[in-house]
Amino acid sequence: MDEVVRVLKEIVRIGIVTAVNLEKYMVRVKFEDTNYTSDWLRVIDTRSFIPGHNTAQRTEYAAGGSGFPAYENHKHDLVIDQWMPSVGRKVLTVFLPVEDGDGFVLGGL
């Protein structure tokens, strides 16, 4: 049983994001218990899409809004993108159980 717990502690880990590559959907994560920073880890696409990262947002013109003339015809910009953790965010990671196995970010905590 102790061996199973030891292996699971190496496969499933919690860390803090230190760098983000939005183009490749990858992050680097620091694990405080070992003071080790990972190589680039892929972020698993498991969440709903969200407004884009650091981009202008765009939508179609919309009418209405409380009946005030200033709000009758207006435009809200919006771009939808995959969820990505930001630097400093705590995340749950999982690594393949082989030497130098690839790792993945499952989600934020």
Name some characteristics of this structure.
10 strands; 109 residues
Task: Map the helices and strands.
Blueprint (H helix, E strand, L loop, with lengths): L1 H10 E10 L4 E6 L4 E2 L3 E3 L6 E2 L9 E3 L9 E3 L4 E2 L8 E6 L7 E6 L1
Parallel strand pairs: 4-10
Antiparallel strand pairs: 1-2, 1-9, 2-3, 2-4, 5-8, 6-7, 9-10
Describe the structure.
This protein has 109 residues and is mainly beta. It is 9% helix and 39% strand. The protein has one helix and ten strands. The protein has one helix spanning 2-11, and strands spanning 12-21, 26-31, 36-37, 41-43, 50-51, 61-63, 73-75, 80-81, 90-95, 103-108. A hairpin with a 4-residue loop joins strand 2 and strand 3 (36-37). The mean pLDDT is 80.
Task: Give the amount of beta strand, in percent.
Answer: 35-45%
Mean pLDDT: 80
Shape: elongated
Structural class call reads mainly beta
Q: Determine the N-to-C terminus distance.
A: 27 Å
**Record field, number of beta strands:** 10
Helix and strand run: HEEEEEEEEEE
- Summarize the main sheet: 5 strands, mixed, barrel
The share of residues in helices is under 10%
Number of helices: 1
Could you give the order of strands across the largest sheet? 1-2-4-10-9
Low-confidence residue ranges: none
For the CA atoms, what is the radius of gyration?
20 Å
